[in-house]
Amino acid sequence: MTELVAISHPDVPQGEMNALVDEAAAAGYTVALHRAGRRFLVFARPGYAAPPGSDFFRSKAYISDVISGNSAHPLGDRTRYPHGSTVQVGGIRFGGGQSVIIAGPCSAETPEVLLETAAKVRESGASMLRVGVFKPRTSPYTFQGLGAAAFEALIEARSRYGLPIVSEITSVSQLDALLSTVDMLQVGARNMQNYPLLSALGTCDRPVLLKRGLAATVDEWLSAAEYLLAGGNEQVVLCERGIRTYERSTRFTLDLGVVPVLKGRTHLPVIVDPSHGTGRADLIHPMSRAAIAAGADGVIVEVHPRPAQALSDGFQSLDLPGFKQLVTELEPVAQAVGRPLHAYSDLQPV
């Protein structure tokens, strides 16, 4: 069993790490060197006469962290940042002691719907705008999003209302276009284990919202996050969006117990998606309150001016008055747990 993992600073020369491995072996460690994107990981097990591993490895200038124990996810391990890490998206900070509300339509159906929704959710207290440009749908015969045709409206919405935008990426081929348009890239449930996509996002300079897979365990989810972290991108937020179980009263089973589990295992911020997690607009309010109470750093909800006319996921979308009421309901819960809602007045135009 591995006793510790030493993590290098980014871009340390291979020769320095090879010398460290030789020195550690001479000191009595059984060691293995692994390259993780821009970093190296040294997996080490001390022998009988080896010096204390934490002291030995921490004394090296090119080692940034030492994780004790047999961590399968050393870069995301809570012991790296015991108080949790923060992720900055424009003027928004996830994990910074405030609760973030992300809201918007499931998909960019028309520029008019997008701009109307952006104006109203900003007015009601949203911190960020969510909108799907590329939509991976179960059926090939359902609306797949506007694609690149929506970019102009996204840019206008951000310019008018100052809300940072998060949108889903489904293919590496979309990366350059989205990087020029949105502030945060979302990896959806169906792509959580798309390792080429995760590796590409690990090397980009944009925050990533990583949703849990449809039936992913916590370990599988954290391993997916490790791909992003290994590439050098430490701006990662995890999103619980429900998992598939035998229960059919909701679209998925929203696993709120995973929020405190993750808080104990990883330093990454965690938010919750009650829209996809339940598939029912009437459950968004109670599950959002519960998510904030459970320790989530925020929620992401689908909002549409006229849900009955939405081209995708209208049944799990709040209307505009419903979203305004949600913000009102979340305020006392967030205050009670010491993570007040991020005030729009704190935002700076992007």
Automatic annotation (TrEMBL):
<dbReference type="InterPro" id="IPR013785">
    <property type="entry name" value="Aldolase_TIM"/>
</dbReference>
<feature type="domain" description="DAHP synthetase I/KDSA">
    <location>
        <begin position="91"/>
        <end position="330"/>
    </location>
</feature>
<protein>
    <submittedName>
        <fullName>3-deoxy-7-phosphoheptulonate synthase</fullName>
        <ecNumber>2.5.1.54</ecNumber>
    </submittedName>
</protein>
<dbReference type="GO" id="GO:0003849">
    <property type="term" value="F:3-deoxy-7-phosphoheptulonate synthase activity"/>
</dbReference>
<dbReference type="InterPro" id="IPR052899">
    <property type="entry name" value="Class-I_DAHP_synthase"/>
</dbReference>
<keyword id="KW-0808">Transferase</keyword>
<dbReference type="InterPro" id="IPR006268">
    <property type="entry name" value="DAHP_syn_2"/>
</dbReference>
<dbReference type="Pfam" id="PF00793">
    <property type="entry name" value="DAHP_synth_1"/>
</dbReference>
<dbReference type="InterPro" id="IPR006218">
    <property type="entry name" value="DAHP1/KDSA"/>
</dbReference>
